[in-house]
Amino acid sequence: MDTMPKWADVILTPLISLVLAMAISALVILAIGESPVVALTTMIDGALGSSYGWGFTLYYATNFIFTGLAVMVAYHASLFNIGGEGQAAMGGLGVALVLLYLPLPHWALALPAAMIGAAAFGAAWALVPAWLQAKRGSHIVITTIMFNFIAAAALNYVLVNLLRPVGSMDPASGRFPESTHLPKLSDMALALGFEWGRNTPVNISFFVAVIACILVWLLIWRSRLGFEIRAFGKSEPAALYAGINPVRITVIAMLISGGLAGLMAINSVMGEAERLVLNAVEGAGFIGIAVALMGRNHPLGIVLAALLFGFLYQGGGELALWTSIPRELIIVIQALVILFTGALDNMVRMPLERIFLAMRNRGS
Amino acid sequence: MDLNTVIQILDSAVRLMTPLLLACLAGLYSERAGVFDIGLEGKMLMAAFSAAAVAALTGNVWLGLMAGLLGSLMLSAIHGLASITFRGNQLISGVAMNFLASGLTVLLGQKIFGLGGRTPTLTPGAELEAQVTPFRIWLSGITGPDAAGWLTATPRLSDITLPLAETLRPVPVIGPLYAEVISGHSILVYVAFLMVPLTWWVLYRTRFGLRLRAVGENPASVDTAGVSVTRLRFAAVAIAGLLCGLAGAYLATGLSAGFVKEMTAGRGFIALAALIFAKWRPWGALGATFLFGLLEAVANRYPNLDLGIVTVPSMFMNALPYILTVIILAGFVGRAIPPRAGGEPYVKER
C-alpha cells in the first residue's frame, strides 16, 4: 500500500483537500455576489490582525482542540463519536454543579475541581452509547446522535426548572462565584507588564488544551492502552486474537473521548460565560469532527486545524459585522472541509497515488 | 379529554408525521441498499428552502416542489459520489451534507430575499406580491395576463377535502374522524401514505426491490449475478433524494407557509430513529412515524402533561423519540438488525 511517501500522505493530501474546499468556498462567495478577496482580507484582519482578534481566535481554537481530540481518540479505536456536542453540553453541567455548590476559595482549586466535573459528566454521557456498542452491538453513531438530542432536552429541563435563579426569565444558571473566575490571558499579559488582547475571552484553559494534546499523544503512541486502542481500531479480529478485550477498549476509548469533549466546558462555561447558558457548545462538538479529520487524527494536526477553525470562526463573525456575507458562510466552509478531507479523501488520494507510482516507475 | 380534542390531536399527528414518514422511507431505500444516510436532515432542509424560495418567486407551489426535489437530489448526488464512487466514509459524508444544507440555505436565502435567512411568507399579501410580480409580468408576455395570474396564484399547497366529508360529518365518531383526520390534508400527505404500500410492493414484489435488498446484504452476490452494484446504489440514493425532497417541500409549503432557518429542527434524525424503530420495514415506518408524530402533537398541545401523579415536562416528550430509539437499539425490546453491508463501500474484485 506504500505507493506514496509519508509526507505526501500526511501533508500533501490534506493540503490539497483544503485548497479544494477553499476554492469552492470562494465560488460560493462569488455566487452570492461578494468578493472572495475582500472576504479573506476581512477575515484575516479581524481574526489575526490584532491581539483582540487573536484573543478570540485562540479562545475558539481551545474549544476545538478539546472536541477534536475527543473525536480523534474514538477514531483510533475505529469508533465515530458524533456525540461531542452532547458530551460537551453535559460537561458544562458538570462544571456548573461543581462551581455553584462547592465552596472553592481560589481559581487554582476551582480549575481542577471543575475539570473533574466536566470530564466526569462528559464521560458519563459517552458511557451508555459505548456500553451499548460494546455489549449490544448498537451502532455508536446513531446512539451518540440520539444522546445529543437527549442532552439538549435534559439540559433545557435542568436550566429552566432547577438551576435558574428565582425571578430570572433567562434559561441560564446563576453566575459562578467571583473566586472561581479563571485568569484571562490578557490579565496574565498585564501582570507581565504589557497589554495584550484586552476584553477577549481566551483564558488559562488554552494551556490546559495544549497539555491535553501532549497527554493524548503520549496515551495513543507511547502507552500500552494506546497501543491496544490502535490495534483494536485497525483490526478487531487481530486485537481479539492478541487478547485485547473489545468491550474494555470500546468503553475506555469512549470514556476518554467523552471526557475530552466535556473538558471543553472549562473554556466556554467556566472561562468565558462564567455561568451555564442554554446552547453553550454552539456546534463546537461537530466542528471537532472537521478538526480531527483535517488534523489527520494527530494532536499536532489537531492544534493546527483548531487554529484554522478558530480563525474561520472569529473571521466569520467579523465578516457578518463588516460585509453583507452572513456568518453561515463558516458552516458552508466547515461542510466542505469535512466533505473533502473526510468523505472525498479518495478523490484526492487516488490521482496522487497514480502520479507517485508513475514517478517511481520512471525512476527505477 | 373529549372526542374533539382527540380528533384535533390526531389531525395534527397526521400532519406532523408526514415529513417524518417521507424521510423515513427515503432512509429505508438508501440503507436497504447499503448506503447509510445521516444526511436526511440536510436534504430535507435543502428541499424546504428550494421549494419555499421558488414558490415565493413564482407564486407557483408546483414549481416550488420541483425545485425542492432538485435541491435534495443535488445533495444526494454528492453523497452518492462520495460514498459510492469514491468509496468514502458514508457517515462523514452525511455529516457534511447536513452542514452544507444548514449553511447554504441561509446564505442563499439572505442573498435572494434579504430577510435574515427566511423566505417571504407564502400567504397572499404585500410581501409575497412584491416577489411574484416580476415573474408574473414576464410570464404574461408568453401566456397572456389571465393565464399568468392563474399560474402564479397558488404559492402554498392547499388542503384537499375528500368526497363526502361534509355529508358524513353528522355521523357520530366516524363522521368527524373522517372529515377532520382523514380528509382535509394537502396532496403530499396522501402521497406519503401511498408510498408505504408502494415501497412494500417495490421492495418485496419486484426484481428491482430484490436486487436492492440483496445489494444491502451481500453486494458481492449481486455483482456475481452480473448486476451493477454502483448503479443500484445510485438508484437507491436518488430515490432517497426524491423522497426527502417531498418531505422538505411539504414542511415549507404545506405544514408551514415559508422557510425559516433550521426549520427541519432534527426531523431528519427523528426519521432516522423511526427507521430503526421500524426495523427497516415500510409498514413499520408507518407505525413508528405515527407514534413520533403523535408524541410531537401531544407535546405541542400540552407543554406540561399532567398525568395526575407526575407532570411530564415538554422537554421529556420532545426527547422521547430519541430515548425510545436508544432502548430499541439496545435490543431489550425487539432487536433491530440493520442491513448487513450497510456503511461499507463495495470494492469490485479484480
Descriptive notes:
The complex is a heterodimer of chains A (364) and B (350). Chain A is an all-alpha fold. Chain A has 15 helices and no strands. The radius of gyration of chain A is 21 Å and the shape is globular. Chain B is globular and about 65 Å long. Chain B has helices at 3-32, 40-58, 61-85, 90-113, 126-143, 145-151, 165-168, 174-182, 187-205, 207-217, 219-224, 229-255, 267-277, 282-301, 314-330, and strands at residues 159-160, 185-186, 304-306, 311-313. The termini of chain B are far apart. Chain B has one domain. The chains are: A mainly alpha (364), B mainly alpha (350). Chain A: It is a multi-pass membrane protein. Chain A: InterPro entries: ABC_transp_permease.
Based on the model shown, name its key terms.
heterodimer; A: 364 residues; mainly alpha; ABC transporter involved in vitamin B12 uptake, BtuC; 2 domains; 15 helices; globular; B: 350 residues; two-stranded antiparallel sheet; cell membrane (chain B); transmembrane (chain B); ABC transporter permease (chain B); transmembrane helix (chain B)
Q: What is the N-to-C order of secondary-structure elements of chain A (H for helix, E for strand)? A: HHHHHHHHHHHHHHH
Our Rg estimate of chain A from Cα atoms comes to 21 Å
Strand order of the largest sheet of chain B: 1-2
What is the end-to-end distance of chain B?
66 Å
Spans where pLDDT lies below 50 across 5 or more residues of chain B: none
* Uncertain residue ranges of chain A: none
DSSP helix fraction of chain B: over 70%
Count of domain modules of chain A:
2
Q: What is the count of β-strands of chain A?
A: 0
The amount of helix of chain A comes to over 70%
- Structure summary, number of beta strands of chain B: 4
Q: Distance between termini of chain A?
A: 18 Å
Strand content of chain A: under 5%
Highest CATH level, the class of the largest domain in chain A: Mainly Alpha
CATH 2nd-level architecture of the largest domain in chain A: Orthogonal Bundle
Overall pLDDT metric of chain B: 88
Number of helices of chain A: 15
